[in-house]
Amino acid sequence: MQERGFKKEHNFIMENRHKVILSGVIDIISFNECEVVVFTELGELKIKGEKLEIINADKDSGDMQLHGRVDGLCYGNSERVANNFLTRLFK
């Protein structure tokens, strides 16, 4: 069931707390080896852990792969923040 206003689905698949496959990723807000913050079709998602590394991110499809030890994840604000990582990167 899709919420009103959302166009695509968002999926989160985790294998053995070391591999994450995401779909419905709109933007990468920030990332380092301890935390990755992305904005998805269903809002902000923070993934915390150790030695986190973005393996693949496809802006056109909204798919993303992440490796490293995942300790936690938290969904947050469903409104997109204008000052995001890619906006700052291409200024």
Layout: helices, strands, pairs:
Layout: E1 11-15, E2 19-23, E3 25-31, E4 35-40, E5 43-58, E6 63-75, H1 85-89
What is shown here, in short?
This protein has one helix spanning 85-89; strands at 11-15, 19-23, 25-31, 35-40, 43-58, 63-75. The chain is mainly beta. The radius of gyration is 13 Å and the shape is globular.
Q: What structural keywords apply?
A:
mainly beta; six-stranded antiparallel beta sheet; 6 strands; 91 residues; 1 helix; disordered N terminus; 57% strand
Could you state the order of secondary-structure elements as H and E? EEEEEEH
Report the average pLDDT across residues. Answer: 85
- Portion in strands: over 45%
Total number of helices: 1
Number of strands: 6
Straight-line N-to-C gap: 37 Å
The poorly predicted ranges are 1-6
Radius of gyration: 13 Å
Helix proportion: under 10%
Shape verdict: globular
Q: What structural class is derived from the secondary structure elements?
A: mainly beta
Looking across the biggest beta sheet, what order are the strands in?
Answer: 1-2-6-5-4-3
Taking the sheet with the most strands, its summary is: 6 strands, antiparallel
